[in-house]
């Protein structure tokens, strides 16, 4: 058995930079990865999807080019070129991560699958099938999550795609049916619609994007529907079957049968914790299979920490990276940072984007916080009108007494970037009256924040 000072399991968005820093701080460190350096974000998640979404946007812009006085009479989509560009970007990000790990002195990258076999003891099945056993006082679990497969009758008898395999589909689906209507479903649904697929999205919940305020969710739904995507809510899939390649039948609770060429499962993700045999090191899992942690990311076993999607809570790349920052500061920089102090934020990469930070109106009202709400349609933004990007809405939630910004939803072109302006304002306690009068360069989308906060009176 080989002894290290620290072991990181999984080379995701938190684990990779953490492993490098542990080694740089003088700890003899191993990082174990069973698949590819970089984890989900680089290999299956953000990087490939945002690359392909950009290509689909080009198709959309070309299709609507005559609105801008540019006459492109016909065009075609070359899926092989789209995949090749995606693969090139992914390969470069993956290689960059690998190089960063292997070039760090005091850090060993072990390629293999790790399982606990005893207290703080890990057995690694290496890629050549041989075994390695390692131990360390400090262990950091960054094993992420994988696509969840729902228990739908017939699923084991048909070909279906998840968010990884859909990226390498060999032709543009004639009719893509997507189960689920959240980030993956909407981003992928719009991507393939823009490449030419008929797209139907099935959600079992009664409300579309139930975590968002209704006005925002309705606006997203309207935009996607206008592009020709069918969205069915309150819909259960009761049976699936396949009669030939690309001939799928999807039966709904009301007896309707949809004929599809491809089925994408986008029903959430499952943490990769149970396969670690956590019980053999005394680690507890919660009822959903996540590894619970305290506010400083330590598990119930002292010296074992979890970061990223394998722990409960929002599952985003920036959260995993921020987990790493918190661990770094607490371990080496004498700080006592907590995951409790950070705002919820994300950007859904539909087009236009939905940038979100802090509280929604429905959350604030549930918590009985006195609030004022400001909204501004993107059709009132000078920049939006000039660029022809008038879809969407800006919305801010402001504390009624302090006039501090508690949250914002920015659905619009550059919505994620404008949301980030508001995130910075929130962090720096810049309040609504100040933003109303702040000078922004004309004519940026962010300049519309002046107008948005006109809607907030001081008393
Ligand atoms: C299609 C898609 C699109 C997404 N888009 C976005 C986006 O735009 N923005 C955003 O913020 N988030 C996005 N996400 C979510 C984001 O990818 C994840 O939140 C993020 O990658 C989580 O990183 P992580 O650090 O938890 O671990 P991961 O990146 O999941 O890495 C975990 C690593 O651990 C390895 N591993 C697991 N078990 C073992 C084991 N037993 N032994 C050895 N190695 C192991 C895995 O192989 C993997 O490489 C997207 C996700 C998907 C699926
Ligand atoms: N832009 C981004 O930041 C981004 C993009 C993609 C993915 N992600 C991350 O990836 C994770 C997974 O995303 P996701 O969209 O798969 O999952 P999700 O958990 O966000 O949503 C799953 C959706 O599927 C629905 N659903 C579940 N089972 C169903 C069934 N049997 N029939 C019909 N509907 C069903 C749920 O009600 C829900 O709306 C998320 O946690 C997200 O954080 C983030």
From TrEMBL:
The active site is at residue 442. Binds 1 FAD per subunit. It comes from the Bacteria. InterPro entries: FAD/NAD-bd_sf (IPR036188), FAD/NAD-binding_dom (IPR023753), FAD/NAD-linked_Rdtase_dimer_sf (IPR016156), Pyr_nuc-diS_OxRdtase (IPR001100), Pyr_nucl-diS_OxRdtase_dimer (IPR004099). Residues 5-321 form the FAD/NAD(P)-binding domain. GO terms for molecular function: flavin adenine dinucleotide binding; NAD(P)H dehydrogenase (quinone) activity. Pfam families: Pyr_redox_2, Pyr_redox_dim. This is FAD-containing oxidoreductase. It comes from Chitinophaga parva. NAD(+) binds at residues 180-187, 203, 268. Its cofactor is FAD. Belongs to the class-I pyridine nucleotide-disulfide oxidoreductase family. FAD binds at residues 50, 309. Keywords: FAD, Flavoprotein, NAD, Nucleotide-binding, Oxidoreductase. Residues 347-451 form the Pyridine nucleotide-disulphide oxidoreductase dimerisation domain. Disulfide bonds join 41-46.
């Amino acid at each position: 058995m080989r002894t290290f000072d620290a072991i990181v399991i999984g080379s995701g968005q938190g684990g990779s930079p953490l492993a490098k820093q542990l080694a740089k701080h003088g700890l003899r460190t191993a990082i174990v990865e069973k698949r590819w350096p970089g984890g989900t974000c680089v290999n299956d998640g953000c990087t490939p999807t945002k690359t392909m979404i950009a290509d689909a946007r080009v198709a959309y812009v070309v299709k609507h080019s005559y609105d801008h006085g540019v006459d492109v009479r016909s065009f075609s989509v070359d899926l092989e070129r789209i995949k090749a560009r995606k693969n090139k970007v992914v390969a470069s990000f993956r290689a960059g991560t690998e190089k960063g790990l292997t070039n760090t002195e005091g850090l060993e990258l072990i390629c293999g699958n790790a399982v606990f076999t005893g207290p703080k003891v890990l057995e690694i099945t290496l890629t050549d099938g041989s075994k390695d056993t390692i131990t360390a006082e400090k262990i950091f679990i960054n094993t992420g999550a994988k696509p969840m497969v729902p228990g739908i009758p017939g699923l084991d008898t048909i070909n279906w795609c998840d968010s990884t395999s859909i990226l390498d589909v060999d032709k543009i689906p004639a009719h893509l049916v997507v189960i689920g209507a959240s980030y993956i479903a909407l981003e992928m649904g719009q991507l393939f619609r823009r490449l030419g697929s008929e797209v139907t999205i099935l959600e079992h919940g009664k409300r579309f994007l139930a975590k968002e305020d209704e006005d925002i969710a309705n606006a997203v739904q309207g935009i996607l529907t206008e592009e020709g995507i069918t969205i069915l809510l309150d819909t259960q899939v009761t049976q699936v079957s396949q009669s030939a390649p690309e001939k799928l039948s999807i039966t709904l609770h009301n007896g309707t049968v949809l004929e599809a060429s491809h089925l994408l499962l986008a029903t959430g993700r499952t943490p990769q914790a149970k396969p670690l045999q956590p019980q053999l090191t005394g680690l507890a899992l919660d009822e959903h299979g996540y590894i619970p942690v305290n506010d400083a990311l330590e598990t119930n076993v002292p010296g074992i920490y979890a970061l990223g999607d394998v722990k409960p809570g929002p599952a985003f790349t920036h959260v995993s990276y921020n987990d790493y920052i918190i661990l770094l500061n607490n371990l080496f920089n004498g700080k006592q940072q907590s995951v409790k102090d950070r705002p919820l934020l994300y950007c859904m990469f539909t087009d236009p984007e939905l940038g979100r930070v802090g509280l929604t109106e429905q959350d604030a009202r549930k918590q009985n916080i006195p609030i004022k709400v400001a909204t501004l349609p993107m059709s009132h933004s000078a920049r939006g009108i000039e660029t022809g990007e008038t879809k969407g809405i800006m919305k801010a939630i402001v504390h009624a007494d302090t006039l501090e910004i508690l949250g914002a939803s920015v659905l619009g072109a550059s919505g994620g970037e404008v949301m980030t302006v508001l995130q910075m304002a929130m962090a720096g306690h810049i309040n609504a009256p100040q933003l109303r009068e702040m000078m922004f360069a004309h004519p940026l989308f962010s300049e519309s924040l002046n107008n948005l906060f006109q809607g907030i009176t001081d008393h």
